[in-house]
Structure to design on (432 residues):
């Protein structure tokens, strides 16, 4: 399954992804926004009724995993019923559902929705839900929070330990030169060193907009690009990442067939050891294991994007979940949201880090990742002017197509100069 939170626009890429997974009731909620259903005075087991949850996780709808969560929820609330509807093209469909009043009682928030529009469609969530949570204020306006992240992603190299061993690699690379040397060892053994998934396009954003900000070490790096006519440079963090990807393509360290979308097949290749590495988020780890790998054979380490031996890594929230303002059972819907993020196990199932800072990840590969002591940088919302300029310039910053073109460009500096010309013209036209 493609990671949905990566493809919902740059504003949400910087804010919630790492990346990838979608008529008005004016009555007040039955409890204060600062309290949870359990604290409202009513016995929690007395909550009753039926709610519908919209989700991007069609796989979990189809395989019954979400039904299992509903069964566990019913143990707490015996009179409650939860129904699920999976939307295949969630990022697009949820926009329509919200405007037509068919967005269920609970849904994953539209990643591209302006913060100012949240009160039109969503009910404030209890303040108690956000205690010690990552990204607590990302979906906040006027002191009220309308969505909470369902998991935390970081990004790095997911690798097959058996493939490394077969190539004589006994430690993970901690510098760029070591990464390149290991890639050649893997190639010499007939193993695809790193599966770019160039043909799938969306993974290519990791070599650009998904990553250049933390490589720079500045969560607000994208905002600085709004004030310049030359945001795209070979010697900047974007050029650094693109140059690494270009090296993998030019040296034959990536898949031979770059034109075909082999995303689903690639997971089996990595699981079997025919391919050794991905540059993706921790969310993909369960998918590789699901494709046949033993968990103990899959590892995870930060991308060594230079030779310093030190590196930054991002922290980004996956889809945010919230209660539809039109819900006829807001108290039960809020109880579901609280259960989902605190008790369901969804974060572990999806390979995420927990959203609560005092909770250790259950995904064992995260322990390895943290052992390399990366400097975690928490992602933030970006200046909306960036998207405005990019759209005006017709630069598709969030699709992966720009990175594809740069990686295969005959002259990288000229390719960046061409982008900068479009960018500068768009800034001028918009008066920025």
């Amino acid at each position: 399954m493609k990671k949905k939170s990566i493809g919902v626009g740059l504003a949400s890429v910087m804010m919630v992804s790492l990346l990838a997974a979608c008529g008005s009731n004016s009555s007040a909620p039955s409890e204060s926004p600062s309290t949870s259903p359990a604290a409202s005075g009513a016995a929690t087991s007395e909550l009753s009724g039926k709610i519908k949850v919209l989700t991007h996780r069609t796989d979990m709808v189809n395989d019954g995993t979400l039904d299992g969560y509903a069964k566990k929820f019913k143990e707490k609330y015996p009179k409650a019923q939860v129904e699920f509807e999976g939307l295949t093209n969630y990022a697009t469909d949820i926009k329509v559902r919200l405007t037509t009043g068919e967005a269920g009682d609970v849904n994953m928030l539209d990643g591209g929705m302006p913060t100012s529009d949240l009160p039109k469609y969503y009910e404030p969530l209890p303040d108690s839900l956000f205690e010690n949570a990552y990204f607590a204020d990302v979906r906040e306006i006027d002191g009220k929070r309308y969505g909470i992240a369902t998991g935390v992603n970081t990004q790095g190299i997911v690798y097959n330990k058996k493939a490394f061993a077969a190539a004589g690699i006994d430690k993970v690379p901690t510098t760029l030169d070591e990464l390149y040397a290991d890639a050649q060892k893997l190639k010499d053994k007939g193993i695809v060193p790193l599966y770019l998934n160039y043909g799938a396009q969306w993974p290519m954003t990791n070599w650009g907009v998904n990553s250049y900000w933390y490589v720079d070490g500045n969560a607000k790096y994208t905002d600085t690009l709004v004030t310049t006519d030359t945001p795209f440079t070979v010697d900047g963090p974007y050029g650094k990442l693109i140059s690494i990807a270009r090296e993998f393509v030019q040296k034959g360290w990536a898949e031979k067939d770059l034109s075909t979308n082999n995303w689903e097949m690639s997971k089996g290749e990595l699981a079997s050891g025919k391919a050794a590495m991905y540059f993706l988020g921790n969310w993909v780890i369960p998918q590789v294991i699901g494709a046949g790998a033993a968990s103990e054979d899959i590892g995870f380490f930060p991308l060594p994007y230079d030779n310093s031996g030190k590196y930054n890594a991002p922290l980004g929230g996956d889809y945010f979940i919230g209660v539809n303002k039109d819900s006829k059972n807001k108290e039960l819907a809020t109880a579901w949201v609280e259960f989902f993020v605190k008790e369901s196990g969804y974060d572990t199932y999806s390979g995420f880090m927990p959203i609560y800072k005092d909770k250790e990840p259950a995904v064992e590969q995260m322990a390895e990742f943290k052992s390399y002591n990366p400097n975690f940088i928490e992602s933030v919302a970006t200046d909306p002017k960036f998207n405005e300029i990019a759209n005006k310039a017709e630069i598709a910053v969030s699709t992966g197509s720009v990175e594809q073109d740069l990686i295969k460009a005959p002259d990288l500096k000229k390719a960046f100069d061409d982008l900068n010309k479009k960018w500068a013209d768009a800034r001028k036209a918009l008066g920025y």
In short: Residues 394 and 422 are 8 Å apart (CA to CA). The chain has 18 helices and 15 strands.
